[in-house]
């Protein structure tokens, strides 16, 4: 439920679509890559393998609807326009294509799935702006849905069974905000690809409808919602074994509140935090009580630190709103620290 839009999204989207020079190598953008795939699968040779007049006409219409200009509009479509963009291609969603593989074998598959191929996008290619590149450039190091798990990216090596060092690129899953099963034309749209943890993407999200959820690329301030209703003293924290039950407070428009509330329920945020992280919540509250804002200011002054640096030392996360997504539980910790009731 965190916003990951910090003013760089439009620039990153342009790099994703047009390509970018990274470490001295120019990586081709997605517009060219998807256009090439559209030309490949909707070429004369493959169209000839689909002779049914009605079917052939649909494929030809799709080819006309997937010029580089149209593809660019799909890939760079802003969050608020994604649903409408998908609707424009609904007629092609279940359209199949029989095509010839490189070895001459005839295969039938979803034509939009072949053109906007997410699996191929995740496969590392040194000359193309791929899934690893996108995750690395975005730098979203913690799941924006739950703020519990890391979604980091790194390049490493491992030794295979033959004793050979094999290059490995590790990067997070991308949640399709609009599920690709229902919206195949959006499978590679920049604003539809959300770095996320496996729990949120697979166990909660999967192919469930998300049209009424909060979109992580929506810009909102830290105070749009807050964790609340914390135990207010040490005795209630550690006495009697009482269970933690956090609350939520909203300070935003009605539309934003509804979307944030829907996301809270959709991803089971309250349930997970209450049942799985009660001990952590108690420890954070105790730390807030023990290390007050005044103490933090004294710590900063004693060691010539900024307040943000002192906060990071004590709470082991960032204080700045634009960096909350970099470490797990940063949102929870900041809300506890800023709670007027503690």
Structural description of this entry:
It is a single chain. The protein has 2 domains: 9-192, no CATH class; 220-338, no CATH class. Helices cover 42% and strands 13% of the residues. The chain has helices at residues 9-18, 30-41, 44-47, 53-64, 68-75, 82-87, 111-115, 118-122, 131-138, 198-205, 234-238, 254-266, 269-276, 278-290, 293-302, 307-315, 330-338, and strands at 19-22, 25-28, 96-100, 106-110, 154-159, 165-170, 173-176, 193-196, 225-228, 247-250.
Order of helical and strand elements? HEEHHHHHEEHHHEEEEHEHEHHHHHH
Unreliably modeled segments? none
Shape: elongated
Q: Strand fraction band?
A: 5-15%
Distance between the termini: 24 Å
Mean pLDDT: 90
What is Rg?
A: 24 Å
Tally of helical segments: 17
Biggest sheet, spatial arrangement of strands: 1-2
Short description:
By secondary structure, the protein is α+β, with helices and mostly antiparallel strands. The protein has 17 helices and 10 strands. The longest helix is centred in the last third of the chain and has 13 residues, at 254-266.
Topology:
Elements: H1 9-18, E1 19-22, E2 25-28, H2 30-41, H3 44-47, H4 53-64, H5 68-75, H6 82-87, E3 96-100, E4 106-110, H7 111-115, H8 118-122, H9 131-138, E5 154-159, E6 165-170, E7 173-176, E8 193-196, H10 198-205, E9 225-228, H11 234-238, E10 247-250, H12 254-266, H13 269-276, H14 278-290, H15 293-302, H16 307-315, H17 330-338
Antiparallel strand pairs: 1-2, 3-4, 5-6, 7-8, 9-10
Helix pairs in contact: 2-5, 14-17, 15-16
